[in-house]
Amino acid sequence: MSDSDPAVIELYKIAVEMADRVSSRRAVANAFFLSIQTTLISVSALSLLNVQRAWPMSLVLAVVGVALSATWWFQLRSYRDLNRAKFTVINEIELRLPVQPFTSEWKSLVQTRTNSWWRRYADLGASERFIPGVFAVLHLLTFAGRFTT
């Protein structure tokens, strides 16, 4: 196949579309988990106002919240790994094309990195995977709050 082979261009289009679909599915999953976690934290926090509620219910809410946080984190890691593989394929296909937009974009991001941690490129996935941990801590703190009221 040559650089101008329509089959290569068609495969490239499909690979890019599939990578975009993975990103879209990840966004939908994030919205789902964020909604569930926010609701669960709200219920847990409101239960602290009712001193008559038994602590086992708070424990159940905390366990469910932490389990959902772990599930969310593992799912994000899976999406990251899947997208990494897809972009490896895209970059390989780009070697057969006259231009390499994704490869060039990544090189540009890497070149702008400095030794300063606050100026380096932080991919969305890094901050995205931090959020489930925040929710896990909130669930544990809310459970602990049951014993301080």
Automatic annotation (TrEMBL):
InterPro entries: 8xMP (IPR056918). The chain crosses the membrane at residues 27-49, 55-74. Keywords: Membrane, Transmembrane, Transmembrane helix. Pfam families: 8xMP. It comes from the Bacteria. This is Uncharacterized protein. It comes from Nonomuraea africana. The lineage of its organism: Bacteria, Bacillati, Actinomycetota, Actinomycetes, Streptosporangiales.
